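Student: Please help interpret what follows.
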Amino acid sequence: MDSTNPKLVHMITFNWFPVLFLFSTIYGTCLIIYRLYLSPLSGFPGPKLAAMTRWYEMYFDVIRGGQFMWEIDRMHEKYGPIVRINPYELHIKDPIYYNTVYTGPTMKRDKYNWFLSAGAPNSLFSTAGYNHHRLRRGMLSPYLSKPAIRTLEPVIQEKVNLLCRHMRDALRNDVPLELHRCFISLAVDIVSQYAFGKSNGFNVLQEKVLNDNWKDGVTGAFANLLLARHFHFIPSLFRGLPVWLTSLVVPATRHIEFMESSIKERFKHVYEMNRHGIKEPCIFSELMHNEKHPAAERTFNRLKDDALFLMVAGTDAPSQALAIMLYHILNNREVHEKLREELVYALPDARSDPSLAVLENIPYLTAVIKEGLRITALVTSRLPRISPDQILEYGNWKIPAGTPVSMSIYLTLRDPSVFPEPLLFSPERWMQQGSGRSQMDECFVPFSRGSQGCLGPNMAHAWCYIGLATIIRRFDLSLFETTEENVTIVRDCFNGQTKPGYNKIQVKVQRDLTSSAV
């Protein structure tokens, strides 16, 4: 006799798929109706598909490879200066409005948590809340102030002089130099010594031959941000898998692993030295002992993430800016000759180390650096900010409190209404006076602006002044197998990137001007 309960059999064999499908369809339909017609952002212009789902953005970011910034620009061409770019966020293209979104400490602005997908969750970069960010920023900012960078000037010059050795070797051996490789080596050496101490610096420039390990690691880390932004579980998943396996999915994993493990190893060494009472002057040694800051902000994991942040953010953008800046100088004979003439007048002895105070008072050098930072505009990503308790007004639009609002440094610095002929490298634009110059100064935001802007403009300016002046005063350089395509930004991976395989700027050293004391 079969004692099987027929009701139980029916429940077991019941096909749940139609029910799940129906539920998903109803839920999806309701969500679309809400986002298109009932959301507080439903009245803002923009593509309907972008308002319905983040998959629209994901397609341009991940499938098309960092193309969403250009899609945003196309949205503005069609819909106007304010557009809804996804279900939750607005983007504004109006340089004059930049200071409203990225305001100073008197107005509260939070970062947008969803957008923060870096692999250092405890870092300053990944801190969203205004008050918490202010606390963490206050820990690092004294070390990147103008007076602090002045004390770092001898270290910067020492490392630039080491780079000059590589240039002399290249002249002697008649081989080209790759500028990204040169300048990221320079940046890694400067930042690592300042962060971890002289005995713990990476000393990449001491190597006989420079390699691309750091360049590939940093480039790969930024390229991975797009994937991690849309699929937040991926960084945690990858950390639990062997490198050989993750390399099959993301080829740059080996370079990223090399970079991250090298930074963590240096930080751990500083941490252990401090535990045993051995203190070397450096940023993180001082932070570990500074009892003005809460103990929870001085733990190993907390400061380790800031070390990662400082090494990646502090080396990539400045090194790329220097490389692309030098490309534009060498590609423009009039600019090159005028800059050399001004440097020869200010620095009669090519062998002497130029003083930062002197360099900052050379007008054309300042104009070249400003124009280089403008045309490079390496942070291509939009930077969303949230006004948590205040309605923002843009024209006739009222933006609800709590709404992520973003603008783009890249689009701001290339806006023709402020910078005529924005694709032209023209330092002369910064030599003019009048209302046009005032507007350019107001919209000059290569490091963003406000209470959550980049911490490193003083450091970057020091590198640009000392690095450019030293190299151009001491060497005759010419471009080698390098064209505009090697510096044209075509992908937004938070930082701007060229077409794969084109991220190289090669030069030949034609003459060492110090040998004849020109």
Notes: The chain has one domain: 89-512.
